[in-house]
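Researcher: Please predict.
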Amino acid sequence: MNCDEFVELVTEFLDGALPEDDERLFIEHLAECSGCETYLDQFRQTIATTGELTPDGISTDARQQLLSAFRGFKRL
């Protein structure tokens, strides 16, 4: 597994939805790649932080900035 494949599977891994063979390859890659280990840690931190947010906890200005940023996002 390379880093691009790893990134594509992170959400499935965190959801416990990876097939057994893919999960094994994911974990093997994670053990060898500090960059992907950092990426996974950051992903978990983001989930923990955003999980604490409520719609009322975000200012109107911040909400608009986020929506604008995501509207302009282009998937590679």
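Model: The radius of gyration is 16 Å.
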